[in-house]
Amino acid sequence: MTETPSELKRTLRESVLGRRDALDPQWRAEASQRFAEAAQQMAPEPGTMVSGFWPMHSEVDVRPLMYALQDLGARICLPAILSKTEMVFRELIPGAPLVDMGFQTFGPGEEAPVVDPVVMLVPLVAFDHRGHRIGYGGGYYDRAIEKLVDKGMSPRLIGIAFDCQQVELVPDEPHDITLPEIITESGLRRFPLSS
Q1: SS3 per residue for 79-121
Q2: Most-buried pick from 2, 24, 160, 177 (CB within 10 A)?
Q3: Residue 180 domain boundaries
Q4: pLDDT, tens digit (0-9, with 9 covering 90-100), for 26-63
Q5: Is 41 inside any structural domain?
Q6: Is residue 120 part of a domain?
Q7: Whole-prediction pTM value?
Q8: Which residues are annotated as a binding site?
Q9: pLDDT tens profile 130-181
Q10: Residue 195: inside a domain
């Protein structure tokens, strides 16, 4: 019996998360610092809203990159999950308190403005040579991106991962959104749009 794309993704997700979890925590912290070096390559216009995320488990700690972008004039926002299907982005105001967002993450509270990011740093579990990604299975980013597109926006999507998260092939499903760019500890990679 052939596995469905969802089943294949589940198997890949378990395998790649095992690899990522096995990375030495000290190495992971040092590698995460190197992501900030890509800020100059991807620096948007000053004032551009960039969505980051608070790292959970063994994810890349994207905060050094977010702060480097902020130093270059970007405004930063973080995701807030409102329900099992809805996620919004709230602006991260320097000095404002962060609240527990669940999933061992933190973000701006309800008083922070809800904003639409123009550049999105997208967390992922696995990716392939075409820029296809596997997330955690909740579909939050796919829906959030679709919502921005429905508003007439075309956000710049940049995946965030370690090199060890690359797989040979991510199974395609119609709702999947391809990432034209992914940053790893090796640097910024760009993928062709038609693949």
Answers
A1: EEECCCCCEEEEECCCCCCEEEEECCEEEECCCCCEECCCEEE
A2: 160
A3: 5-35+46-190
A4: 999 999 999 998 888 888 899 999 999 999 899 999 99
A5: no
A6: yes
A7: 0.92
A8: 9-13, 59, 133-141
A9: 999 999 888 889 899 999 999 999 999 999 999 999 999 998 877 778 899 9
A10: no
